[in-house]
Amino acid sequence: MQDHDEQAQQALLEQVNALVYDPECLIAHQWSEGDLVLIDNYRTLHGRLPMSPASSSRELWRVQVY
Asked: Any idea where the TauD/TfdA-like domain is (predicted)?
């Protein structure tokens, strides 16, 4: 995007943000003890809500399969 003007860059950024935060594209999970969620991280943009006292003791494991 370096070859485009600032207005074109901003327009693209707005389009990407609209897709990323579109509720139709969002999967949210309400965690319960014993839950296991598997995600194809190759094609997933992921994030999380801010940490809270309830989430501070969570345990995450990362496993890679090739």
From this structure: 5-63
Q: How far is CA 14 from CA 1, 46, 49, in A?
A: 14, 18, 21
* Phi and psi angles of residue 47, each rounded to the nearest 5 degrees, phi first: -160, -170
Every domain of the chain and the residues it spans: 1-66
Instruction: For residues 21 and 37, give the distance between their C-alpha atoms in angstroms, rounded to a whole number.
Output: 21
Reported as a single tens digit per residue, the pLDDT across 15-62 is 988 988 888 887 888 888 889 888 777 777 777 777 788 777 777 777
Residue 61: how many other CB atoms lie within 10 Å? 5
- The one-character DSSP state at 49 is P
